[in-house]
Structures are given as C-alpha cells and as structure tokens.
Amino acid sequence: MNNGFICKSCGKYHDELPMSYGSAVPDYFFDIPVDEQESRVEMNDDLCIIDDKYFFIRGNIEIPVIDTNQKFIWDVWVSLSEENFDKTNDFWEDPEREKKLDPMFGWLSTDIPCYPDTINLKTMVHTRTVGLCPVIELEPTKHPLAVEQKEGISIVRIKQIAEELCDSEE
Q1: In percent, how much of the chain has pLDDT > 70?
Q2: Which CA distances in Å does 157 have to 6, 12, 43, 65?
Q3: What is the pTM of this model?
Q4: 77, 56 contact by CB (below 8 A)
Q5: What does the DSSP 8-state code read for residue 139?
C-alpha cells in the first residue's frame, strides 16, 4: 500500500510515500525577528508561548486513508486560551489526563501547504494519554482539509502532496 512514487517535481524515485508532515513551530513564530526570538518565545517540542500572551499546543490532524486502516497525519500547532493552556500544563504529566480534560477550542496556527489558507480554522483539541499528541479536530466546513478529515484521503491525493512537498535535495 505504501509504495514509492516517481516525483513529478524532482524526477526521482522515492521508495516510501510519506504519511505525515509537520511544522516545528507555530506560524506566528516566523513574524518575530530572529534577534528577538529568544526573549519573546518560550517553547519545547509540544508547547509554545509567545510574548507571554499567545499560547500554542502541538497536535495531530489525523485523516483516514480511504480503503485502508491507516491515517495520514498533519503535525500542527493550535492556539489555546491562556486558561486552557494552563489547564493543559496542570495535567501534562497526569496519567489520566485524557479523562480529566474536556476537548478545548483552538485556532489552527499552522499554514498547511497543499490547501487554501488554513490559519485560524476552528478546531477542537482532544487530549490523549501522556506521550501522545492531542488529536486536532477541525470544525466541519467545506474547507478541503476539513472535508478530507471527515471523508478520508486517497492514496492518489497523498502522492500529489508528496510530489508538491518533495525536497529535491534528498
């Protein structure tokens, strides 16, 4: 199922079809001048605070792959209210955190390539057990990403994404 593909962008054969892509930082990070990042940003792999007033959590948009039991994943950042961010921190290491935290509203804070603008799409953040990123559920709309999350994504579409995001330097 996860066969390779000949990339239309670089012309090379890639022996694996990537099933996930991600962003290391929320897009708002890129608005901060490099010389100010250290003083204005506090972050680790999963949480980020910018200017002590913007709060972000990293999570996964999971999209079912049609006719398989696999998922295609976008690793993204979502903004949370300060209150929900604090709750998340309070339960971060709690082994039953997924039972104690209700889904939280957030705004998608990653511009996902291969789709129309994704910044500020409405989401719900669903906490999972310690060690797993939250699942990010998009508000059901006609946005192509929300439609794919609801209806699934085809292998052909995943190959199109892989070709668009191909790093020809590999």
Answers
A1: 92
A2: 14, 18, 33, 10
A3: 0.90
A4: yes
A5: P
